[in-house]
Structures are given as structure tokens and as C-alpha cells.
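fyi for ur records
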Amino acid sequence: MAEDYELMIAGVDADRQLTVTAPFDGSEIGSAGIADENAIQQALTTAYALYCDHDNWLSGTQRIEVLNKTAAIMQERFEYLALEAAREGGKPLVDSRVEVTRAIDGIKNCAELLRNESGREIPMGVNAASEHHLAFTHREPVGVVVAVSAFNHPLNLIVHQVGPAIAAGCPVIIKPANDTPLSCMRLISILREAGLPEAWCQACVIEDHAIAEQLVTDSRVGFFSFIGSARVGWMLRSKLAPGTRCALEHGGSAPVILAADADLEDSLPMIAKAGFYHAGQVCVSVQRVYAPADLAEEVAQRLAELGDDMLVDDPVLEETDIGPLIRPREVERVHEWVQQAVNDGAELLSGGKPASNTCYPATVLLNPPDTTTISCNEVFGPVICVYSYDDINEAIQRANSLPYSFQAAVYTKNIDTALHAYKQLDASAVMVNDHTAFRVDWMPFAGLKESGHGVGGIKYTYEDMTIEKMVVIRSAMI
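which gave:
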């Protein structure tokens, strides 16, 4: 059944609807209202007026109640949310259920922040200048939050941007990816059902890039949250109004180093899962695996066998391991990169040919040149490249050679090897004996270099969306 959503902007109706289709077979699954320039201006006016009206900010009690009720409603509709997210985004149902579990936990985490995050006392009375003074800080909302999201986790990414804003007390305007707006609209509808006044969380689809840029760069925006491509993220950051804070989450080309003593029986299944999961459309998917020269061929062959056992099919089927890429042109692009690598000298061990115009199978390449496109860029497809090395420092140097820096991994039984890799790898997080896509939602999640700006993770986003406002009291009684 198709779901149709009007504009979620207070007091505005949409003139046009965006048709949303399933990436697997192109079937129509719903629609969402398209915002024009007038709608965007109204959304900003509404949100900014709420922020400026300090006397009527949502209380902590109200915010906790809304978030807890939202989590409860989501739990009641768990299977429905998972199925529809799988249809819309193409992530296999088994993995979509994991996403919904994380999203519910994330909403609960946002509510918990209000009890566990606080201001602090600033030391006074420690010298002549500070005698008879008391100073402390209190957290207040930073301002209007504008969030632009990506398609690959259509529910949980929205939770990571909208949930902390609600917890912080910020009015928020969210623009989901045009490929996957329905999961966002569902979540906003649930928030409103749970008691959040409509004006505090507005959502819209925007087709015109110039209008989207107007939304992001308006001087009334206090914080800009972006998840998407580096090209777009850095461009928008360069155009933000003075004083607008921001956090950018882009992609990477996640490296894994297998040491000579790595347990292949343990490591290779999880590496295969992390590389082929959601057809590789994850910003920290395993893409580059560095293995000792005497093991590299075996590693690549075993990864190929694991990939060959994965079923590529409709994401709503229980048995599907790999669903579609988000658009047919992404299938074409991934295939072009694979073919270029083979032409440049890589050995193709599995996959390497589109399964359909919407799906690409698990693909393993052995020793593609470091200069070929797939070695230099984030593939965002189900492709793992295995590279042989003679010395682990060589592997680390090659892993660090790209302008991306996000999460990395090392597999070893030796603590000194693990700590050496941890120290030398350019990454915001190094996983030891786990894959690069490991994440729990309360940990910091940060892209470095071209991979992003600021720190993600619910707690850290909440801190970004608040200010520590200080009061200093002078009294002879102190």
C-alpha cells in the first residue's frame, strides 16, 4: 500500500508530490510533498520564532515524555517500520530490523541525555579576583537545527539528527534524501503522535538545489547537520552564515590490516559481512583489506567464496543477503570501476558482473593497482579489494595514503601489533579484531580529513546542539 505524505511544514501545503519508488523493482511505494522557496521560508520563520520565544521552550519533562512515547510507539510498529524501510532503501529485511532496533534505542538514549548531561561548576574563590563569586553553566539549545540526511539508513540517520535536537530543545527542520523520504516522514508523524508540537519538528523534500542551499545557509540557522557526499558537504559548509555551527559526516575507504597471526576463521566471515552488507552502501564498509603476501590469495579466495554464498534478491525477503543499490546508475558506476581495475591488472575472483539493472553481486578483487579508481575512492558498492604486503608498516602507509580517514581495523593476536597499528593508522577509531563497520550509537563517530567535520554519535551531537551558558554571581555571602 502506497503512503502519501503532505509537506510537514506548519501552515503550508505542497503544490507537487515526489513519487517514491522501490530501488529493487521500481514499484511505486508512496509520495512526499515537495517544498518550494515559500515553504522553506515559512519553515525557517516558524522555527526561529519558537527559538526566540525563550519563555515557551519545551521543558525537559515534555521532551523526555515525547521521546519515551515515541520509542514505545516505534516498538509497537517494529515490523512495519523494518519492512517499509527495507522496501524504500533496499537494505535486506534482516538488516533493516537491526536498524529499527538501533533507532528505538537511539530515541531512548536521547531521553536519557536529559538526566545524565549537565552543566558544570567553574572554580571561583581561588584567587583575589574570584573571591566572593560563584559560577556555573547550564545547557541551552544552540538555535534552529537544519539537518540534511542520506539514503542508506533511512530511519536511524534521521534519529541521529532529529532525536538529539529534540532532546536539546532545538526546533529542527529535516531534509531527508529524496530517494528515501518516507521513513523520515513516518518518524516525524510518530513524534507528533507522541505529543511533540508540529512546529518543533518540520520535514520536507526539496528538489531544487538552490532552494536547499537557501535553507542551509540562512542566517537563522544555529546548527547544520549533514550526512552525505563530501563534495556537497564541504560546499555547503563554505556557504554557511557567520556563526552557524556544523557537523559533516561523509564517507571513507575503510582499511583492514590482517597481521600474519590473524585468525582467518574468525575474521573473514565478519569482514565479508561488513564489506557486502547493504550492498556496500555504508560509509565505513570494508573496502580495502591488506594481507601478508603469502596469505593474500587465500584471503581473497575465501572472501570470494563467502560472497558467492550470499543471495542477491528482493530486500523484503527473509533470505536475502544483498539487496539493490539505490539507483541503476550506481550499478553502472560500480561495474565501470570494477572493469577498470581488471583492465589495470586486478584479478577478479568473484562477482564482477551486474546481477540485474538494480543489483550487483558480492565482488572480490585481488591486488588492483593503488592508482586505479576503485583503490583511490569510496566505491559504495559490494566490492572488497585485497592487497598483498611484505611488511605491516608498508600496509599502514598504504592504508593512510588516501585523503579519507574514518574507521580502520587490525586483526592480530599480538597486543603490541595491535597497539602499533592503533598508533600509526590515520583514523578516528581503530577496531582490534573487529570490522570497520562496528558501531554502537552512543560512541563517538567521526570522519577526519575529507571524511567529515565534527563528531557524530547521539551524545556528541546533543552536545553540539547545546551551548554551555554561564552565570557568574558576586555576593558577600559566598
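The chain has 15 helices and 21 strands. thats all i got for now
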